[in-house]
Protein 1
Amino acid sequence: MPALTPTAIMDAYLAACRAELAAIKPGNVHVHAAGHRMSVADFEASAVLSAPHLAAAGTPVGARIEAAVAATRDGVGQNTNLGIVLLCAPLAAAAERPGRSATPSPPCWPGSTRRMPPASTRQSGSPIPAGSGRPSATT
């Protein structure tokens, strides 16, 4: 998988922010309801202000978060997007690295470092391979 450019990361983040505002969330701000002394315009401005900081190439995750939150606070005067910033900062950092699979194979069993083989190569219908720590029917 090729690395995403800062522009592509910014575009994806802004799209996620718009999608979040479009989702109707009772008790929270969305396109049909303001609340908590915040409006949709505050969230839209926050997205635009924080986007360059989340997409800053080579910047550590913590620095992305700090800069995005500071830009939001300076521009809007309140915390409107901390949740989505915390979610997207590590995703943005990972997206700028080339060669990473978007779907890593899951561990065989919680705490295991072994990886599951592709489903097409498994012998049984069980999603957990034999010998992975799962109790057998005979024990």
Protein 2
Amino acid sequence: MAARGRPVGTVTAVTTAVLLTAASIAEARSISAFSAPLWSPGPTIVVPTPPPPNPTPTVAPPPTPQPRRYAQASALPSIGVRGGDHPDYGRLVFDWTTEVPYRVERDGERVRVRFDRPVRLALAGVAGDPPRNVLTVRQTGERPGMVEVSVTPGSRLRDLRVGTKIVLDVLDPLPGTAVAAAAATPADAEAAPEPVEPGAADIEAADPAP
């Protein structure tokens, strides 16, 4: 006896469609599984960038040395300068009232006396009437406290300190030298005595006579 309900052909078609649908879903899942990426990106690693190297420090050039500035001449202390003639030498006396270092330099007939203190030198008297063997006396503008003395060729120098005063003697050339012979007249050659060095009393006097 035939079964009641749907025909056999219809049931078979439906079953086949269900099976095909299930197979399609399974295949789709399988393909999706294979097409999925085989790796996933890991956490992002940030590599710190090293700071730039320190720039080379700029070294400022050293300051240009400025010429030494001295006080105005009118503001400097003043000392007197005396001169005098002796039988065989001329004398300059610098009347310092305090002890001041000094030095004497000679270059040919040019003599420089450098005092270690700026000062005005009262040279009017000796500049107008220089002592024996001294041609000119002047204070240079190079440095306050330096005096330049022009002396006769062949003359000799002697400097000394008497208390706080500075003494510069300009002695005649030694007898018998060509300079002394050229400077002497026939009368001088006959009458000229042997030069005598100033004695200790003259050198060590508290107020040396010019």
Protein 3
Amino acid sequence: GAKNDQYDSDEDQFFHFSEVSFPMNSVLMPRSIFFVSHKSPFVSALQQTNSAAASPAQQIAELAGERFHEKYPVGQLQLQICTRRKVLADKTAVTEAVYNLLINGYEAAAAAGRTPQVRLSVRAERMWTVFEVKDNGNGIPPSLRGKIFEPFYTSKSKNTNWGMGLFYVRRIVRKHFGHLKAVSEEGKGSTFLLMLPRYGDEEGGKHHSSRQEAKS
């Protein structure tokens, strides 16, 4: 039967999904980055850049969704917001990263001959704020999973895509002391997890909203 595999953009490690419930335990990050304190080395490093600021994760997700609909006006996008957390980030760059994942998911499903169904969810997971993008494409063949984060790799037409999507996303995530992971099940699509370190306290407690977006 089809296998559901989880792999890490940094380590190119592959796991059978049933053996790993969530990628948190396999993240290789300096312990200092886990500090929630606004005085942590993570915060200091990002605050040295002019473009880093505290931004609501929900706002980044909504901006990425708006960009998605600019490219695919009638595309179906389900947006789920399950946290009010903020992230310390270059909002433009992280929005671009999430947008790239949305476009990749939509185009993967379309290339598989299916009506694309893309879901973007934002949630809090311990010391991480997670942007999850799930599609209903064919999944990623095992032979290609070690290549998808390489520069210039693409399964799309070279005339319209230069293969910088996932490589570019990973660079943005790394600059934010984050992590990029993926889960793929052959024949059933892929899920990408863009994980940024938690910043500050969650405001307003837990939050959940879900809506189906499609522009007419």
Protein 4
Amino acid sequence: MARFSRKFPAVAGVWIIACMFAGGCSGGARQGAKMDGDASGPDPITGELLRNGDFERGRAGFESDYTAGTIMQAQAYDILRDPHAVHDEATSLSDHTTGKGLMLAVNGGDAPDRAVWSRTVRVRPGTGYIFSLWLASWYPSAPAQLDIRINGQSIGRITAPALGGTWKEFRGTWKSGGTEKARVEIFDLNTAISGNDFAIDDISMTAAPM
């Protein structure tokens, strides 16, 4: 559960190695490897804008204001197969995509202004889009309350299931208007330190059918 908010000190040398091999440094800065440029277009086959939304490529394709590589402290995340494998008190949980893959596991905290996940993509002006994700709790106390925003405007909120290990879908729509870029962000509005532990999988954004 999200009981620890203290950041662990870095050790010279080890800190640098962790940054190189883990794909990002802890300490509150935005983390996550970029993929296909800062504002990628849709996948030419599927039309998917948010590539690696199933997290099978690890930290590629998104950024986060949370600390990377752990779920043992507040305001932190990791890409893993089962939270229980790294946290004894977590509910055992398989990913939503195949039941055998990876997910974004998050230990929430009192930081409603920090993006858990974010991505900038190119969009077509005058086009409607469908955004979706799947959300679960890996510890049922104080379920997370996510707010999904595109270009700073909320397109909807979702509360994580009270029952640990159960996936729940969010689906919302957004119209691009005259813009050619969309900044997609996910925030956790719950400020509880104990509990507020959740997982996200299969984040998707595609153009709505004409």
